[in-house]
Structure formats: structure tokens, C-alpha cells
Model the fold of this input.
Amino acid sequence: MKKLIAAASAAVLFLSAAACSEENDSPKIKLETERDCIINYKGNEYSCTLSFLSDGVEAVTLKSPETLSGLSFRYSDGKYTVSLGSLICRSDSILLPDNSFPAAVSDIMHDIKKNKDNIQLIKEKNGYSYSPSLGTPCTVRTDQNGSITEISLGNK
Done:
């Protein structure tokens, strides 16, 4: 009888430990220096590079569509820079409407950077996701390692 109780107790402990470790298997979101990403914004798809360059520096550089290739939005030390080739505009504010593509992407990048240690990724078919509570509906998807692969903004 003692062996049966000991075996049952061991089984319960083993299953409890397995259940706990399974919940904690989701990776932490990674903020690489640069990361290729797809951003879906109100039905439009943009291929871009997300850059988390250092404390307080975030940038998005568009690769496609071709008409916007090279357009960059950068936030650093409380200042915004929008550039395309040799055209550069700097300001203390984003200078664009709050619901514009650059403003929405800037909001999510700030949120990711600010909350990266507290973000709980949810398992999906091919990776993980989370949906921050921002003014614009948003879903961030990652690969199995927690690297951002896609951001959907403003999609219903």
C-alpha cells in the first residue's frame, strides 16, 4: 500500500511539473537589432525591416511596395525622423495623423519595447502571437523563437 501511495504521489508530482513547464515553454519576444517583417495595415501589406537599434531608438524601413521602398520612420531620443533618400524631416512629434501607418507602427514598437519582459505570447499553429491593448486593433506574430514576423494593424 505504501508503494502504491508513493508511486501515485510521484506520478502526481511528475505530471504537475510537466504541466508547469509546458505553460512556460512560450518564448520571450525578441527585439533583434534588425528584423524583416510583414506589416498588414488596413488591408495593405508592407514588407519592411524593423530596427530596435539601442535604448530609445526604433525604426521601420519599407521594402515594398516598390513605390515606398526606402521610406524610413525613426524614433530616437523623443524625436521623429521621416526620410526617403536625401529627403529628411525631423520633428518633436510624428507630424502625421494618429491613425496613419507610421503613427500606428510607432505606437506598437513603443509598446513592444516598453512591455517586452511582460508580454505573454500565445501559441498558434506556426508560432506565437499577442494582441496589445492599443487604440488600434493589433496582433503581433512571432516565429517559434519569439522573433517578430508579422504585425497586423487596423484590420477588422
